[in-house]
Amino acid sequence: MEQRRTRRFKLQLPLSITRAGAEKVALIGLTNNISSSGVLFTTEREPDLGGPIEYVITLNSDGSQSVNLRCIGKVLRAGRAAGTADVSTGYQIAATLERYEFIRDR
Fold it and tell me: Which residues of 56-94 are buried (b: 16+ CB within 10 A; e: fewer)?
């Protein structure tokens, strides 16, 4: 039986990757689940395995004022999403959540 250190929450939230390694990028995605130590999400392009990643999760996209969580971590696992025909969300990425800050839209 698989045992996790932290509890995972199944949340489908908008996500954008702003940096992969040293390269600035603009990729969109969707979270599958989130824990206090990482996130599993889908996106259109596979980032470098083991490399640093910066991503922003939008927490309140339906509200009057969106709240974004800017996260920095590293890519732990990446591969084709099972049963995905849509190329825009063709990769499933597991990344750590090492540092974060809340960003409010003005």
Answer: ebbeeeeeeeeebbebbbbbeebeebeeeeeeebbbbbb
Which neighbouring-strand residues pair with 94?
40, 77
Are 54 and 19 in contact by the 8 Å Cβ rule? The answer is yes
How does pLDDT run along the chain (106 residues), one tens digit per residue? Answer: 556 678 999 999 999 999 988 889 999 999 999 999 999 999 988 888 899 999 999 998 777 788 999 999 999 999 988 765 554 558 999 999 999 999 976 5
CA distance 15 to 61: 11
Whether the pTM exceeds 0.70: the reply is: yes
Give me the residue spans of the domains in the chain.
Answer: 14-104
Q: What is the CATH number of domain 14-104?
A: 2.30.110
29 and 53 Cβ atoms separated by less than 8 Å: no
Structure tokens given for 45: 């392009």
Whole-angstrom distance, CA of residue 102 vs CA of residue 93: 22
